[in-house]
Each structure stands twice: as structure tokens, then as C-alpha cells.
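CORE FACILITY INTAKE
Project code: CF-77B
Contact: R.S. (postdoc)
Sample description: multi-component assembly, two entities in total
Requested service: structural model of the whole complex
Turnaround: standard
Below are the sequence entries exactly as provided by the requester. Do not edit them.
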Amino acid sequence: MISEQKCGNVVITGIGMVTPLGDNPQAILKKILDGESAVRKPSRFETAPFFCKLSAEIENFDPEKFVGDSKTLRLMNRDAVFAVSAARLAVQDSGIKIGDQYKSGEVALYGATGLAGIALEEVAPLVKFSADAEGIFDPRRFGETALNRVRPTLSFKILSNMPICFVSIFEGITGPNAVFNPWEGQGAYAVIAGIRAIVAGNAACALVGGCDVKAHELSFISLQQQGVFESWAKHGKGCTPAEGAAFLVLEREDRARSRNARIYARISRAVSGTYSGTNRLSFFNELPAELCKTSRKPFDLEIIGAEDGNPEWEKAEAGALKKSGIAFSRKISPKPSVGNMFAAAAGLQMSIGALLARDAHDGGKVMVNCFGFGSEQTAFLLEPPSSPPQAVNDSGVPSSVESRPRRRVVVTGLGVVGPVGNNVETFWQNLTKGISGTGSITLFDASTLRVRIGGEVKNLDMDGLRKYFPQAGEERDRKVWLGLSAAREALENAGLILPNAPNPYLDRASIHVGVSLEVFFLQDVTPVAKNERIGLALARSLLTDSKSGAAEKPLQTPLDRMTQIVGDKFGINGGRFVNCSACAAGAQVIGDALGRIRDGMADVALAGAADSMLNPLGLGGFSLLHALSARNDEAESACRPFDVSRDGAVLGEGGGFLVLESLEHAKKRGAKIYAEILGYGSSMDAYRVSDPEPTGRGAVACMTKAIADAGLEAKQIDCVNAHGTGTPKNDVVETAAIKEVLGDQAKRIPVHSVKSMTGHLIAASGSVEAVTAVLTIFRGIVPPTINLRYPDPECDLDYVSDIGRVFNGKTVMSNSFAFGGQNAAIIFGKYTEGGEQP
Amino acid sequence: MTDQEIFEKLKGMLKEVLGAKIDKIQMESVLVKDLGAESIDLLDLSFLIEDNFKITIEPNEFEKEVKSRIPGGVYEKDGYLTTEALEELKKSLPEVDHSRLIPGFRKAEVPSLLTVSVFVKLVARKLAQKPS
């Protein structure tokens, strides 16, 4: 299934790269053209256990040269350091001063991050001190000893959205945003998201790209477990993991020209494809042919090739180009020189493409192939700046982009699993009754942790799920199963699952999944805790012991795992998006799906998220930050949003999925319509990764945008499903922000937090709360905020304390604010047959 | 270890955590206001102090200490420190800005009072308690 993002007149005006071949774009290009290579024997670890013996490392990198802030740098992992440096270079290269030519909120930020950013040395104390005498992981030792041996700042290094949040802080970017993960195809989706934000008028400028660190031991273990090194075993050649970051500045062409920007290239086309199944070579398929087919005139083509050393891929790419019948003058492949930068590869390929396009003569074009691991592949076509721009209308949208009215989008299916129920019906009954789902942790021995409570999913039907999803095998990551359960219910609920065959509607549908971070299975590592070189011993034990079943039980589950299982099982092939924007992920996926259906790129989308941090590392890590309530003896009433005695969030787990559909498509197939999605807005705080911005400007911005996007006025918001975490800071800042956005209306309407019952489901919270918002409208009841006895004097809204309430309103706004400063708000509205939008 | 020796060691940690210039760090510097500390920095600093001096700092160390001295132990009400707590806190933290310790002072504001000397004293006390 191939889909095309309309590009309009979006131009590239800045590039920034931090690569194993250096950070000077012209020098990098020259080295690639000269066949110079940074690929060599790794300096930091031994390669004996690996099929692949080579990597491409960045040596002697001095980040202070770029960002000059040693205080913030110490919170940053290597991937984040590369990201902020490359982003700074790209913005400088564009000549843009954010806040000058563009307001900070007019600039969008979309980035991709990779798997396993963390270096083993940093987690080594956790491993060493949580092993018992036999090397078996002991959760009691973990809480008692190991956890006290790591700096609390470690948490900021392992959250997958952090590198991009640091970019927003360093560059002062507060516009629309998302973070994708983990492979090159998701990096290309970050570029496409930036193009879309500009074409749809949500931003005038976008910083897009990615970062990754694959040139270290832990990544090598993960990559080998996932079969990335197969070609090394078979052919003695293959993909060489690298590290680095690459970012691009995209702008509307008319704005760029009016400020006399130096333009590298115009992005004229972007086509993407999803290839399901296991045949990794099918992915090159017909994208190049598709990319060139609508061009009327012949042109001189140069190609940025995707080949990365794997001879089978090289053959496949060559075959696809041959099959397409397009003639090209030159093909340049950066990966054999720079190494494979995975999540950062699309940014790098595009940067090299931009350099070539700038020097191409009129009539020349550059094709950029972003083909890599995972199911998602994209190819872009770039034109030199000298080629004539297309005619545009007043809003800068080219006439080639259809200016039909945007399509209405409705919700036609719901699925949920959470601490108060494992299906929509039970969940809703308990939620409206004000039943708490939090309690003492039973999933593991948490007795030595400072925080021993959470919102667990009880009695998950694992046997049923295993049978239904054989693709998931022996998956150990709990959030994957939670997501599968909710996704299945949503599709069933929407009537989209056919008994014996894939549903053709789903072949064109897109799937958008939010997750937080990979689970790191400590129990796999502790058996080698006694070894002096943990990494080497770990690699040996995991990769050479065939009985360990390493391939089926990877040390880390890549973040696209759930997406791939759901996509393959139900044949959802119209784009698979993996969002890791922490606590905003579950809301952002709905916003992204909304945009895709509005634009006509899909008729149906499955959007949702799942998460579980209820494991020693998750619960322990959060408690190190003192972000959680320590009311271990009052587990059921520990989470107290807006109450004066609140002392932190309670971690929960669960999943929520929604089926989104264009109104016409829903009507055509006679689907039951729960509600309409009216508006969406996202923003960034650009403040600190550890605290919400005290004036709430980020929260205000996303709510304001959502209301404007819905075409509503503040007085038309009838209810707020608050983020309401129960931390001292969030609830005060959120209350103030709601009052600022809604004015007098804020005091008249219910504002409630379901986290008082479910706890904080992190990535899943936005989706589970979206399901709640839809049901609030559809069933006409607002669930209460429980545990609210004495409201904080600074929290002075109507929080629906203790018991639920009848709701006759037409709209609900749902807020999600993430660690790192990403914010999102969605507005749901009552759907009435034949009625206009409220 | 003398207070001065503790102070010298602390300077290095403050530099690492806050990126603060060594010559800017004084005994009376307020961490949040003068040295730009954020909540995560205070946690990080506590971690480094524990690790370097081999002592244990409890979460809410000052709160616990003050509480233990208040008859009945009522430290806060609705998030605000009680009058008794404010008086005890002045005794515990003689070096901080007492003009801020008036009714209406929130429990959550306590960290914003802390000066470098508070940590020097804390370390000195903990080291003295340690069995040698």
C-alpha cells in the first residue's frame, strides 16, 4: 500500500549533521564522493560475539562547542547530545533566528530516536547490585541496594522522547511536535510530519530529523538478536551500525524567499509504503517508480541510495530502480561511508540529497531513498531551487494541492484495558462509579522500593491473547499485550474484523501507536553481573547460547513491536506510525490520525497507545525522581489530583485504542458513530525536562490551538478531561492554564481527572482518557475525581469530586502533558445525524 | 573533617551538578536563587553527597528532623507549615533567610531556602554520627 504526502512548496533551507565523518556538510559530501569511510573496528568494545565486526563511531566530540551549557549536558545521553548539536547546526545554517523571523510557536519540531540509547556502563551498578549469589535478579536487592547506586538523572537519559525535548529547549521551539521511533522509516515519517505541518498551515517552518546511537555494545546485542546482522553471517558483509544525528530546516517557499534564504532544494514529492510480513526485501518494491511516474517531462536524475552494505538489499534496490525504468546519471550511497544511522538515517540521506539538489542544474532532480529496517519505507524527490516554483494561493498552498474542505472525522470504535477494567464496558462502569484501581504492587516484589503502589491491570486473559495473536510469540513486554488487547477490542467494536479474511478497508488504513520506552530485561543481564566485562559476558551468553532463545526473547523489545503485530494480524498497511512522546504520546497519535484522515490520506485509522512501567526499573526510576506518591499504606486513595494533600502521581498501566474514520466512510459502511473529533493542538514548553513551565504557557498554547482548530470559542468547551496527575506542580499549573484559556467558562464546567482512579498510564494515558472523553459525550456522564477532600486553594475549579455526574454538554477537551515538555489537547464533540459541527 | 574541608569537597560536586563556577560558590549561596538549581539538581546533589561522603540523606530530611521536635508532630496543614514548624525550622536552619519563614510558607517551598552551608552542616552532623 503506497501513500503520498502532498508537499506543496516546502523547501529545505538548513542542514545540520553530526556524523562519524564529521559535522561539515560539504566535507561529509566530499568524503562520501571520494569513497572515504569512517567504518572501522569499534574502539569501545570487543566484537568477538558479533557477526558484525565493524562500526562507525564519532570520536573526540565536544558538545560544548555547539551548545555551551555544561549544566544541561550532564542530563543528556549521547544521542541527545548529538541531536542538540545537529539541530543547532541546521538552525544556524538556515540563518533563522527563532523568535525573530518566526515566532517560536510557528516552528514545528519532529524527530526520531532509536533503540537503546543508554550505555551499559551507566546501568552496570543496577545489574551488579541486584543479582543474588547465583546471579539471579532479586527485586528486593534491586530496591534495597542497586537503585541507590544510580544517579537520579539516569531517568532523563532513558526516556525515548528526551533528545527531541532537549532540542526544543536549546532552540526555543514551541510549535507542533512529535517524536517517532525506532527505525529509518520512522525518521522519514518525522520529515513527512514536518512537511504536513507546513502544508496544513499548522506551522510556517519545521525542524525535522533524528538521532541514534547504535555503535555501542548494548545496541550490537539488540541488533544481532533482532536479525540485523544476518547478512554478515551469510555474506560476510552487511549493515554497519553508526551513531550521530541529522536535522533539516523546512520552510514555506514564499516565506523563505521573502527573507532571502539560501534554498537547498524544494521537496516535490514524498511517497511511503508499508510492507507487511517477513520478506525484508519486498520493501524496495515500487516506490521509485511511483515517485517518478507523474512527471511529464524527462529529467536528469541523481539518486541517494539506501544500500548499506548488505548485498541482498543492494540487489533489491538496483532491481527496483531497473524495474521502474527510470534513467539516472549518478547514484550515491552514504551508508557504506558514514555507517547506518538508523533513526537518524533519513535526516542524513535528505541532507546529502539537499546538497546535491542545490548544485543540480534546472531540470535535474534528486531521489532520496529512505529504506531500512522495519516495515516503513519512504522515498523523496527533491528539485533544485532554480526550478520554477508552483503557483500558490494566498495561504501559500500550491494549486497542485487540492483545496477541498477538510473532511470530518468521527470515532467508530473503542477498546480499553486498564486498572479499573479490561474492556470498555467494565472500565466505564467502574470509572463512573468512582472505583479506585490503584493498590499494592503484586506483579513483582516491590517491598524494598520507596514506592510500592500502582494501578495494575488485573486478570489479563493471557491465554486468550496468546491464542489470538500467535505473532506475538513469547513476548515478555507487558505493554505489548495490553496494547494488543485494546486494539483488538477497538477493531471488533468498530465491526472491522472479518471472520476469515483481512478487511480490505484496513489495507488502506493507517495505524498510530504510542509507547514510552523499551523495557530492559534486567533478569537477562544479572547472570553475568560478576564478570568484570559485563557487556562482553552478556553478549556471549545471550548470543551464543542457543538454548536461551535469544531471538524470541530480545533483551529489549523494539518500540515498533506492538505496531507490527497489530498491523500484520489485521492487515493494516496504509502507514504504521510509532510515537514515543512520553505522556503526550497517547494524545498525539489521535491528533496525527485525525490529520491524515482530514487530508484524505486514509479513510480509517487505528490510533492508541499502551504502556506499563510497573516493573522494577520503571517504578524505581520514577520514584528516584520523587514524582510519585509514597502513600504506600493508603494505596487506593494515594492519587489525589487537585487535593491539598496530594504528593505525587501513582503509576498505572493499560492501553486504549480508537478507530477513527472519515464521516463519509463511516456513513457509507453504516458504522456506529460515538463522537466527532473536532480539533487538535500540540505544543512544547521549551523550558526544562524536569519541571512543567511554571506559567503554563505550553499547556495554554496547545488548548488554544485545539479550540481554534475546532473552529470553536472558549465558551463552547463544556468539560475538561484534565491531565490531573496529582503532582504538586502539575495540578496548580494546569488549573491556571485552563482558567487562562477558558476565562469565565472554566468555572462553569466540570474538570475531572480519571488518574485519581487509574493512576498515570504514561504513554497510554492520552488514549485511555480519549476513550473516556468519547464515552462522556456518548453516554452523558462525567466520571468523578476521587480522593479529593480538601482542594488546594490554588485549584479552584469544579473537579467533580467523589461522584460522577450527568452530562448534557456537546464537547470535551482532553489534555495530556509530557515529561520533557510536550503538550497535546484534543476536542471531542457530540455527533448528531446530519448536524453541523457545534 | 572540618567544615571548610567539607565545603571544598562540596564545591566540586556543585560544579558538576550545576555547572556553577567555583569562585561563585560561597557558604551563603542559596542553591536555587544564586546557583540556578532545579528540583532534579537537588536530588542529584543529594545522591553525590551520599556517594562521596558515604552517608545517607533521608528524603525530606529537614521535615523529619523538625517533626521529631514538634510536640504532637503537626508539621503542616493543607500544605502550609504550622507556626510551630516554622519556629523549629528556624532552629534547624539558622543560616537560611528567616524573613521568609512566616505563616503562609508552603511545605513545597522549603528546598528553595537551602544554602550551601546547610549542606555543609548536614554532612558534618552525619559524619559525626557515623561510627568510626
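Facility notes:
- The radius of gyration of chain A is 25 Å.
- Chain A touches chain B through 24 residues (CB under 8 Å).
Invoice: internal transfer
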